[in-house]
């Protein structure tokens, strides 16, 4: 009997060991969360399945993390285990705590993982503790790192992005034409209004600047044109046109109205870029859109002896939550900030061009148009914007596809000139502040839009779903003032009425029970 028990125990141990060995490479997680944000997406699985050489990830994590970060180590370990399971043995990870080993500290810091000082209250004492929370990726002779993981939200996108970048034989190329920047250097400076966007795009693309005075190179996959205020030289217009004619993809972030918020002035931009766009059927109205869902400006007001800052809703700063849910670029995005945007006019669209809208203002919109372009905040102070803004939604961003006809075809001067294309695309956002420092570039929704748009135009859509499903902001829908009153009283009265009804039902049930007991013992 004892021998039989020993054999059964050995068989059980063997089965458990076998199951654990198999589970290393056969992995399945049941994720019932919205958007499946706690399991790897198909794009991430494919990224590691395609590995043909060993990729090693070193996680430098302190064991004595503060309470609010205590679960981060466990989360990172779980997600790396899932990556490893789908990599067919080509991805390995290991955890290190550099706290007590000088060699590990030097190794971590050499690869960009710097310690961060955090305040920790432990045993009723305030301590300053240095912690490590970073990842380093080693692939052949390449090294990439994620220096700090303070928030696990979006970690999958960061890891998959690093995997794709470090294993790629060559990044796709993106060029930026910023007419307000010195093109002599590609290095971002404090005056570079596109520094943030350049930094984010450089994680996935080889980013360069150009002045359009020479033809755009054939290997440029996407061209960003940001904020033209003056007319361009003829050579610049021709080169821009020919890039499109050769199947290029262009993102325009373009104002129609030039504004100065300090002086509260607004004037139309007179540039020949609008004549070029008009030849493709692309037109911006000479107006500024207004939206009841908007940002605020701080207004100084005199209160007795003091001047105080008072926030005022300013509908010239629309917050966009009304997006085209059928388009992968924006279907999961919210909280996109515009600053003095104009409306896209579809009146001149030709039959050869198809337009797909991306961003709309809300159901309570308006416009300020010529000849009175008044951008003062005074009309909106102490005003119910819903009574003032009663227009339908206005389109402020969209994609143009189809057959574009060149406006500069001249075979006598240039035998290589291309007269038309059906493969190029133009994505237009009617606001250049959308990607500028100090305005739109600081908004998470704007950055996600730009990254998604570039991925879409460059046919690199694998990461869009990962980035989009990590979006946290889910705003409540605006309701009318009369509805607010109903909701308020409903919340006050309904719980009390419900409690009274439950009490009455319970009382009647108790009476019925007593009556039944009385009948049994009579």
What is the percentage of strand-forming residues?
25-35%
CA-based shape: globular
For the record, give the distance between the C-alpha atoms at the N and C termini, rounded to a whole number. 64 Å
- Poorly predicted runs of 5 or more residues: 182-190
Biggest sheet character: 8 strands, mixed
CATH 2nd-level architecture of the largest domain: 3-Layer(aba) Sandwich
Written description of the protein model:
There is one protein chain. Helices cover 31% and strands 26% of the residues. The strands form 8 sheets. It has an 8-stranded mixed β-sheet, with helices on one face. Strands 2-1-5-6 form a 4-stranded mixed β-sheet, covered by helices on one side. A 3-stranded antiparallel β-sheet has the order 15-16-18. The chain is of the alpha+beta class. The chain is built from 12 helices and 25 strands. It starts with a helix and ends with a helix. Residues 182-190 have low confidence and may be disordered. It has 3 domains: 23-164, Glutaredoxin (3-Layer(aba) Sandwich); 170-469, Rossmann fold (3-Layer(aba) Sandwich), CATH 3.40.50; 481-522. The chain has helices at residues 2-25, 42-49, 70-86, 102-110, 155-167, 195-201, 234-245, 273-279, 385-388, 444-457, 464-469, 481-521, and strands spanning 55-61, 91-96, 116-122, 125-131, 133-139, 142-146, 173-177, 206-209, 220-226, 249-253, 257-260, 265-268, 283-284, 287-291, 294-303, 306-320, 322-323, 336-337, 344-345, 353-360, 365-369, 395-402, 404-405, 420-421, 425-429. Helix 6 links the parallel strand 7 (173-177) and strand 8 (206-209).
